[in-house]
Structures are given as C-alpha cells and as structure tokens.
Write a structure and sequence with these properties.
Elements: H1 6-56
Amino acid sequence: MHQLSKKEQELSIENHRKLGLYIELKREGLKKKQQLEEELLKAKIKVEKLRASKLKHGLPEFNSM
C-alpha cells in the first residue's frame, strides 16, 4: 500500500478544509436565498391583502410594476 508523503498529506488536509468551507458557504447561501424568498412571499401576500381591501372599499386599484 502506498503511503502519502508529508506534502501529499498536507495537500489532502488543505483540500478537505477547502471543501468544508465551500460546503459551509453554500449552505449559508441557500439559507439566505430561502430567507429572501420568504420575505418576498410575505410582501406579495401583503400587497394582495391591500388590493383586496381597496377593492372591498371601492377604491381604485394601483398598478403593479
């Protein structure tokens, strides 16, 4: 069985560390994306409630972008 040289071991450890960091950053990015999507959905719901309220009270509806 081939043993890794000290340099190969250091490179392997460094690669593992970088992979761990990448996975952590990816996970944080996905969490942030989910948070932003939830905020967007809440804002859309709020807009629809305002539209419904205005229609209920006979006010003119505003145009969305």
